[in-house]
Amino acid sequence: MNVAVKHTLSHLDWLESEAIHILREVAGQCANPVLLFSGGKDSICLLRLAEKAFRPGRFPFPLLHIDTGHNYPEVIASRDQLAAQLGERLIVRSLEDSMARGTVVLKSPGESRNRHQSVTLLEAIAEFEFDACIGGARRDEEKARAKERIFSFRDEFGQWDPKNQRPELWDLYNARTQKGENIRAFPISNWTELDVWQYIERENLQLPTIYFAHMRPVVRRQNLLGGSLVPVTALTPAREGDRVEQVSVRFRTVGDIPCTAPVESNADSVAKIIAETALSTITERGATRLDDQTSDSSMEQRKKSGYF
Asked: Per 3-state DSSP, what percentage of the chain is helix, strand, and coil (rounded to 5)?
């Protein structure tokens, strides 16, 4: 007599299945999609999901990174290594090229370039005529991102209107666009930071070393949320009166060097990071993304102008 073996899906299985479904919906509905890939942990998870969705075939979209020129070198090295290992096409467009064209003008040489990425992204979308951009944004990261649908519509100017969202009933997605319009698709929108780390552990994904605890020179700075550690680098040098400390830190999220702060931590393995994340009461962008803490550079305002 045959005995059926019942397999109970874990929450990661459900999240993975949903994300794969979303990726296939993008590929099925859109003529010319692209996957935004920075080399960070969320986009690395997206690559694994794309492998499960489309292998043994090639991805039905290239990879795209908008390089500000102020990225951490460990992350750029990981980006290039993973794209090469997968054998997938990686397109890199530089914010510095936008600056040379005059489409991006900085108020000062030391200004954070992070919010200006939207200009270069919109230029890349126009250059290649992408009708959908797949990204690793999640709703738990920030309140503006919690307003997004899975398929988030952008008008012909690349702008997002949080009050003009398409319904997504019964996991039915509408990617229909006119020429010049595009969709931003978020396959892991329903994931949390803890889900991401548990998936990294399950899939044994390789990450940039910057995500794990290491000694780094930092200074302590006060900001709107209390205080942050600012890494001492050529782009963020110590100021007069600063006390430079060697502290064991890790990065929960990775962006531009001038706007990304580490957190104190001794978590030097995925298992330790999972344990630490489970106890955290502050979102990963919280006190670690300095550009989210000023009203003129809020996430919602940046997204309305085309930011991912």
From this structure: 35, 15, 45
